[in-house]
Amino acid sequence: MPQAKISITMPPVVIEKSFCTTREAAALLGVSVGTVQLWVESGLLQAWKTAGGHRRVLHDSVASLLRRVPDQPTAPPPGSLVPAKPRQFRVLVVEDDADLLRLYQVNLSRWPMQPSVTCLDNAVAALLLLGRGGPDLLITDLHMPNMDGFSMLRTLRQAPEMADTTIVVVTGLDSNAIAEQGGIPDGIELLCKPVAFDRLLTIATGIVNNSRFQLTPA
Question: Which CATH superfamily is domain 90-209 in?
Answer without folding.
Answer: Response regulator (3.40.50.2300)
